[in-house]
Every structure is written in structure tokens, then in C-alpha cells.
Amino acid sequence: MADADPPELHAVLAELSTERVNDRYADLDLLSTRNLVSAMNAEDAGVAPAVAENTDAIATAVDAISERMLRGGRLIYIGAGTPGRLGVLDASEAPPTFGTDPDRIVGVIAGGRTALVTAVEGAEDDGAAGIRDVADLDVREGDSLVGISASGRTPYVLSAVAEARRRGAFTVGVACNAASDLGAAADVAIDVVVGPELLTGSTRLKAGTAQKMVLNMLSTLTMVRLGKTYGNLMVDLKASNEKLVARSERTVMLATGVDAATAARTLAAVGGSVKAAILVHLGDVTPETAVALLGEHDGFLRRALAEAAR
Q: Active-site residue among 19, 43, 124, 163?
């Protein structure tokens, strides 16, 4: 930056790595298209290692969220702009993938549903709205709330996390700057420092990728802990379209070794439950018994299989 830049600008850039200028690409607009692609790919290559630096924090968050969800609590994502959209995306994919009730994993974005497709001016700066949105959800002890903000200091998100924590919820802060305000406000800080963006300040790039990776881990690994998988097979999916019907059949085939026709018949006999269909074959029980055993063991397939083997 030129010496004529105001001191406060220097202070912001020094504090927020997401806002710094990436000096390697000062001539970005002069590069060939192929070199532009290579440059962006090179920058993205650093995201996974930055996420890996937060392995312990992510694991701590997964265990805490899982424990609360086992007791009936919810996982709530809250953010503004791109982080908010990523949270809504992750939440919306849970029901078909893991068979969860839509109100168990919830995504909230500053400015409401309109903000999913259109920028809502000033929404991210409205701290009072963050408090109201948490109150409207009746967040309580037993819930887990994940605040997402690239800068780690978005007023809407900071206020929401503070209010959720005041109400006794477990809170996580996902940011892309070291020692972020959001991390300090939450029970667990996940500060994924990816450095300055290829395009200065465009945090939908590396920062957005990092946030998506973290949310993938929080939701997917929590579902593993809740018994939504058998090995690495998704066995609680809802077959709401032809693709998922076919996936359900393939999953039963992979887990049990039966053919497609048998898998389809068994799924029909258990109301489409992949877990129950697997239990019928691996546990050598009737469809009715399979469904009952899963109910007795809170949907944990391995526990039901152990019971069937007795």
C-alpha cells in the first residue's frame, strides 16, 4: 500500500488476513487465462492444510454437537452473505442424505430467505437482528449453534453467538482470521487461516471453500456419530427421487451381497428403510423384527445387528 493510505487502513489490513492484498498477483488482469486457472488452483491447494490445522477443534465440536443431538438438540448454522448461504446449503442437504427431520439441522442467514439469492444491504451489520433470530428459534441448552464469518467479526453473527451462549447453547465460531473475535465469543474456535485471496477481499473464494469444508465435517461426522452410516455407506437416506431409490438399492446390495431384485423387494417390505433392509439380510430376521430392533436401539444398525445375533 502507498504511504498515503490512511493509518486505519493499514491497521485493518494488518489485522485481517482475508483483506490483505496478495502481492503475487498484482498483475492478475494481465495473466493469460491458463495462468489464471493455474493461479487460482495453486491458491486453493492451501485450503485443506489450513483446515487440517484445526483438526482438534473440529473434533471437539463434532463430539459436543453429537452428544447434544443424541439428547434431541439441534444443530443451527448462522451467518451473513456467503457464509450464511453455505450454512443453509449444508442444512438443506441433511434430510435427504441422512434422513433427519428438517428442524434438526437449521440454516439461518442474515436478511432472511431473500438474502439467499440477493444481497440484503446492511443485514450483516445488524447485531440486533442476530439476537432476534436466535430468540425466534428459541435456542436453548442442548442446541448447538455454529456462527460462520470469514472476517470473524460480523456483528450479526457475533450477536447471535453471544445470545445463543447466554441461553446455554454450545457455540462454535468458524472464521478465516487468526484469533478472531468470533472464535473468542464461542465455546470452540475454528479459525482457518487461508491468507489473502487471489482477488483481494473476495472471501467467497478460499475462505468460502474452507468454510464449506468445515461445515461438511461438522454435519457429516456428527451424523456418523449418530449412527446414520454403516461403515462408509449412508444408510439413513430418504429415497425422494429416482437417483436416491437406485442408491438405496445399491447400498443394500453393497452391505449384504444380495442382487438388485432382492434389495428392491426387501426395501419395499420395510417401507424403504435401508437400515432395516440390511438388518433383514445380515441379521436373518423378518422385516417386522428389523424395524422393531432399530426402534429399540435408537436407529443404530450395529447395535441392532448385535441384538439380532444373540
A: 124
Burial class (CB in 10 A: 0-12, 13-18, 19+), 245: middle
Question: What does the domain layout of the chain look like in residue ranges?
Answer: 48-225, 229-308
Q: What is the pLDDT of residue 3?
A: 46
Model confidence pLDDT, tens digit, residues 246-282: 999 999 999 999 999 999 999 999 999 999 999 999 9
Phi first, then psi, for residue 70 (nearest 5°) are -65, -25
CATH number of 229-308: 1.10.8.1080
Q: Are 177 and 152 in contact (CB under 8 A)?
A: yes
Rounded Cα distance, 19 and 129, in Å: 25
Cβ(280)–Cβ(287) below 8 Å:
yes
Which tens digit of pLDDT belongs to each residue from 93-141?
Answer: 999 999 999 999 999 999 999 999 998 989 999 999 999 999 999 999 9
CA–CA gap between residue 226 and residue 107 (Å, rounded): 19
Beta-sheet strand order (sheet of 105-109): 105-109, 75-79, 144-148, 170-175, 188-191
CA gap 288, 213 in Å, rounded: 39
Judge whether 67 counts as a catalytic residue: no
Q: Is-catalytic flag, 242?
A: no
Q: Which among 15, 19, 53, 93 is annotated as catalytic? A: 93
pLDDT of residue 11: 52
Looking at the domain covering 48-225, what would its CATH class be?
Answer: alpha beta
pLDDT tens readout for residues 35-84: 999 999 999 999 999 999 999 999 999 999 999 999 999 999 999 999 99
Does the pLDDT at position 5 exceed 80? no
